[in-house]
Amino acid sequence: MASATPIAFAILFVFFFFSFLFAFPSASSSSLEVETVARESLPMDGDVAWVVQVSDLHLSAYHPDRAADLVRLLTPALRAIRPSLLLITGDITDAKNKRRTSTRQDISEWIQYKSSVEAIVNHSGIEKRRIFDTRGNHDKYGVPHVGHELDFFSVYSVSSQLGRLSTIQSISLVIL
């Protein structure tokens, strides 16, 4: 009888978890249909996969030099390393006001990001399809749900440009 208690608890937990999940649908489920998992295979040159990750860019409307520095520093590094993947992981934009006392999305920061990525792609030799970017908390400030008019990530990110707005990205590097 004692062994039935943990099983009953597990069943009860699963029931309440799914009840909660379906009782409170997210705003994005009704306004934007996306698949749960996206899979991509990218050919690899040789048997070693080089991956470059940059994070916390904090591109800012009040510090345009950050975008210029990104292009100036990352472009030659990518030319030298020739990575299989470039991961840009979160806090792409700063999303702060000039005094840094409040948060809000600023479209000019996202335009800076898109222009910077285009310059990097044009001068580094990396293919855009080998760039994966993800949101950070700064990239979500003031965005109530995916697809909202303030969701600039869904418009200006590499992921959005290549139709990669799925919940999970699965990437396979395949030796040629």
Automatic annotation (TrEMBL):
UniProt domain Calcineurin-like phosphoesterase: residue ranges: 51-144
Keyword Signal set for record: yes
Organism annotation: Canna indica (Indian-shot)
Gene3D superfamilies in the cross-refs: 3.60.21.10
Annotated keywords: Signal
PANTHER family to which the protein is assigned, alphabetical: HELICASE RELATED, METALLOPHOSPHOESTERASE-RELATED
Record field: transmembrane: none
Name of the protein this chain belongs to: Calcineurin-like phosphoesterase domain-containing protein
One Pfam family cited in the UniProt record for this chain: Metallophos
GO molecular-function terms, A-Z: hydrolase activity
InterPro entries per record: Calcineurin-like_PHP (IPR004843), Metallo-depent_PP-like (IPR029052)
Signal sequence interval, chain numbering: 1-23
Lineage, uppermost ranks: Eukaryota, Viridiplantae, Streptophyta, Embryophyta, Tracheophyta
